[in-house]
Amino acid sequence: MKVLIIEDELSLQETMKLSLEREGFVVETAGNYSQGLLKIEDYNYDCILLDIMLPGGNGLMLLEELKRMGKKESVIIVSAKDSIDDKVAGLNLGADDYLAKPFHLAELNARVKSVIRRNKAGGSLEITLGNMVVYPDLQTVKINNKELVLNRKEFSLLYYFITNPNRLINKIALAESVWGDHIDQADNFDFIYSQVKNLRKKLTLAGASVEIKAVYGFGYKLVTE
């Protein structure tokens, strides 16, 4: 799961980033309006944490741009301005939640997981496909009610597939969703092939009724038997 933090207070930005990474998220950051705009234009995220007061512009303007582009990211406004007007304005523009500074990191993590769950799984604590059940909050997968042991990247790959079932996914989109925008620095996609190969093998050995099919020259698709 991939999160973007748009926050100009660098110490807070780093603290939030480290906390979310410990929870298993891929986290990217932007420190001002223009950086945030570039990120939302070029990449897709599961959740965006958005400060209102930013150098070079207003966070609510970024939220308007996000909605104008037709993107579906969950958005949590994170701001020291704990006023009713700001909260109402953000929610009216399509934000999913509002978190006032200062806040506890445990609450931040819980809010992020909650809005992603509501967006991706219709509010459910689990996502079911065939005989496989994925628990995003716990980063746990069960097949025929037996836990499937995956490493963090394998789980992130599977989560991306199960939230995009039967959709043909190219290698670049898959890499960006799991490794972040640093994928631009990669020379090839050998690491993707390796991780997907291991994931496919584990699903097969566990008797999963879903399969990750390779589409030659393009990418992969998660299908049910």
From TrEMBL:
GO CC annotation, single: protein-DNA complex
Coiled coil (residue ranges): none
A GO term for molecular function: phosphorelay response regulator activity
Keywords carried by this UniProt record: DNA-binding, Phosphoprotein, Transcription, Transcription regulation, Two-component regulatory system
DNA-binding region as annotated in the record: 124-224
Keyword Hydrolase: no
InterPro entries, A to Z: CheY-like_superfamily, OmpR/PhoB-type_DNA-bd, Sig_transdc_resp-reg_receiver, WalR-like, WH-like_DNA-bd_sf
One Pfam family here: Trans_reg_C
SUPFAM superfamilies named among the record's database cross-references: CheY-like (SSF52172)
Transcription regulation in keyword set: yes
Positions carrying 4-aspartylphosphate: 51
GO BP term, example: regulation of DNA-templated transcription
Domain OmpR/PhoB-type positions: 124-224
Residue ranges occupied by any Response regulatory domain in the UniProt entry: 2-116
Name of the molecule in the record: DNA-binding response regulator
